[in-house]
Amino acid sequence: MGHYLVRFRPRLGHVYCFGCAHRDTVTHLVSGFRNRGLRLPFMHFFDSFEGLPAEAAGLDRPPVWEVGAFSNPQSDFESILQGLDLADDGYHIHPAWFRETLRPALVEDGTFQPAVYVDIDADLFVSMVDVLDFLLSPRLIVPGTLIGYDD
Known about the structure:
CATH topology: Rossmann fold
Distance between the termini: 15 Å
Strand order of the largest sheet: 3-2-1-4-5
Order of helices and strands: HEHEHEHHEHE
Number of domains: 1
């Protein structure tokens, strides 16, 4: 991911990380901005911290992607953030299933701003659809938004 940030000049906007309970994405993203002397945008972190939800009916998934796989306590994630020395007013953790945290009211009240970067590590089709339906509907993904996918 880091080589993309070399040419990237972020404008005002927020960063959205979906499926962030484990450290790699967040630490690489923060270090990518900092190593290039770029200001960290406001960051939204989304995870249930309960692992994977059930997949949509009729869709296959790898055997290791069982309901609850990849769970990690929210307190562990908060420790990661403390180690990154993020400003308390520079991020928000949204602890629940994506479909429960992605509410239009958060766009309307200004909590969610257009995205400068979106990272989606949702693993499952059902989760990916929840994220993309929401981000595309209120126009949070705009021309110039970078999107990173895992799985």
